[in-house]
Sequence to fold (193 residues):
Amino acid sequence: MNETAGEDTICAIATPLGEGGVGIVRISGDQAILIAAKFVRPKNHTPLEKLSSHRLYLSDVFSKENFPLDEALVVIMRRPYSYTGEDVVEIQTHGGPFIMQTTCDALIQEGARIAEPGEFTKRAFLNGRLDLIQAEAVLDTIQATTTNSLRSAQGLLRGTLSREVEQLKDELIRNLAHLEAGMDFVEEDISFI
Fold:
């Protein structure tokens, strides 16, 4: 599949709107780390670009005017080992709407754009991280209201149905090959079926 589904970098508030203890702003795309580095300063004084992938770092987050917005946990997930298959940065601030929106505004001013609904999952599909069944199961997981509906969605998301479909496809291809061989060599008195 594509190495990257989009040529632009997207951002969005990844947690429900409203006040809460934690709010997450997610950035994905080729420029995600470079854009975030303009506003995120790890407390260990290591440049954001040099941080290890998939580790949390205590950091300060600044506004575009260089005003301290919040102390946050930041994680970089380098391609292809992220949800979207692209470079991803998650900034885990306190869950105030103003903090999260100001962080998004700063990212947008530096070249990111607001993600469309479902665009992170769309990029995961386009980059081969999820198949279509799994991509659809993301919404089923989010909307699950019972244990059974959650189990069903998680089975789909974890590839249970996809593996069964793949096995059936392989079996059909084998049967089709035998059927075609049997039709091609009908005079040879060879049984393929």
Strands lie at 10-13, 20-28, 40-42, 56-62, 68-77, 88-95, 113-114. The longest strand covers residues 68-77. The first helix runs from residue 32 to 36. The helical segments are 32-36, 97-109, 119-126, 132-143, 147-157, 160-184.
